[in-house]
Design brief:
This protein is mainly alpha-helical. The protein is about 35% helix and about 5% strand. It binds heme C (HEC) (2 copies). One heme C (HEC) binds next to helix 5 and helix 7.
Amino acid sequence: MPPVSRLVLPILAALSAMGATACGGSAAPESDGAATAAVTFHEAAWTPPREADIPADSLGASIRRGLHLLRFTPESLPAYAASNLRCTSCHQDDGLRPTAAPLTGSHARFPKYMGRSGAVIALADRVNYCFTRSLAGNAIPVGSREMTDILAYLAFISKDVPVGTKIAGAEGLIAMPEQLDGDAVRGKELYVAKTCVTCHGPDGAGNMPIPPLWGAKSYSIGASMARIERAASFIMHNMPQTAPGTLTAQEAFDLAAYIDAQPRPDSPGKESDFPMGGAPEDTPYDTQGHKAFRPPPLLPRGNPKGAIVPNPRVTRDVKP
Ligand code: HEC
Ligand code: HEC
């Protein structure tokens, strides 16, 4: 893999090349539902700051630490990041890649309503959803130095993005144009034919820094990536790492169906997701009014309590 510094320039070029077309199509973030539909977004021409722009002061030191936590998550925070995934395993190119759930502008998109939580949540809680679900780990304390550093980096790559503005290529994984029926048997063949196996391994366990796709060290059932449509989008636009953009939508759905049918860590509390109903069709576990879609075998979690991010408390419920 090329070092990240060599990756940044082509990404910036890709960001500007994507221009207007990327804004139009980048719909459907994971579960924001009705609440985002009511917001009028304005599109803004904008280029994210790069690592070289990080200031040489105390704030810069915090931003730089945040960036390194994203790049080396299990190495830096083994008690919290229990899997072999880094934040940048999915949010590729330091969170700047438009097709890989970009983190650019996220500081200007929160607090926001998430249908999955049934509540308005702050950016720190959103970060913790990725710690507990995508990294199958534990929530990091909201007031900690580490959380502040991560938020400092997210604010840095959101610089000059007006609050409530939709920026080119950002906000979640690009919605797949249509829901296709992924076939896990074809997906298993494609896993070999399309070279996934050479990097991610026959057992899906990866080989650090190549992340695992299933098993005890992979993302949990409660991660967005455990939904076939979300995984298909990531795969179609970003994989194979050596030749992104070469798979058809059907191949991406087949690969996603195969990968998401494999065993992975449980996500304690998942049955309380979507408390108002409205879970996407491919949610792989039962929730209010929804029957699990092709649920994978589950592996137990070491610290189920740490895996839960409580909904925001109401001040009147708290005794001083
Ligand atoms: C297994 C893949 C994966 C990993 C690893 C991961 N994330 Fe995410 N994250 C996602 C996906 C996918 C989304 C967007 C959801 C969608 O579009 O469906 C997301 C969304 C987010 C968002 C909200 C972005 C926005 O503007 O709405 C933040 C912030 C975030 N992740 C931070 C992190 C951090 C910090 C880490 C490391 C601790 C991390 N993520 C690790 C997959 C991942
Ligand atoms: C040349 C090695 C290579 C090949 C081939 C490859 N990947 Fe990846 N894959 C990676 C790396 C490295 C990452 C982490 C992203 C990063 O560090 O930039 C990744 C990340 C991923 C992720 C998100 C993170 C996770 O572990 O869940 C998925 C899903 C994925 N790859 C699926 C696939 C599929 C499906 C194929 C085959 C079509 C494939 N990959 C082929 C190297 C590869």
